[in-house]
Design a protein that fits this description.
Elements lengths: L1 E2 L6 H11 L3 E2 L4 H31 L4 H28 L9 H17 L5 H13 L1
Parallel strand pairs: 1-2
Helix pairs in contact: 4-5
Length: 137
């Protein structure tokens, strides 16, 4: 729960924390909480869109959604470390590419695009995402 005011009573702070697990004050700029909200929702909905697309490919490959879900959990578990690592590099303005090259990332994305298109699935979102990797490699 992101809040815009440091002036919440302890009882209100406790109530917010009980709803969201943590209540964070983000400073005096009232737009800051909204900016965090929109960026976090961007992460959520982009990830969910990818997951739904993956389920469509899984179905086309005769993989049950519930079977894929249990493997998808392992991928999600590595995301926090990757996000922290990438954020640190971005904040420092360095892009070493020592864990994965952008060319490798783009090739992986191309493989997914081909698989989706083979099954007649819409791959327009993947094409747009791949633009970032292709331009950077």
């Amino acid at each position: 729960m992101l809040k815009q005011s440091p002036d919440l009573s302890i009882s209100k702070e406790s109530a917010l924390a009980s709803l969201a697990g943590i209540a964070s004050y983000l400073g005096e700029d009232y737009d800051r909480a909204a900016a965090y909200d929109i960026t976090l929702l961007d992460i959520f909905w982009t990830a969910m869109t990818g997951y739904i697309h993956a389920l469509a490919i899984a179905r086309a490959e005769n993989i049950a959604a519930s079977d894929l879900a249990r493997y998808a959990h392992n991928f999600i578990r590595i995301m926090p470390d990757i996000m922290t690592y990438n954020a640190s590099d971005l904040d420092r303005g360095i892009y070493p590419g020592n864990s994965s090259s952008l060319r490798s990332d783009a090739a992986s994305m191309e493989h997914i695009i081909h698989a989706a298109e083979f099954h007649g699935l819409d791959s327009s979102i993947l094409h747009e995402a791949n633009v970032y990797y292709s331009k950077s490699s």
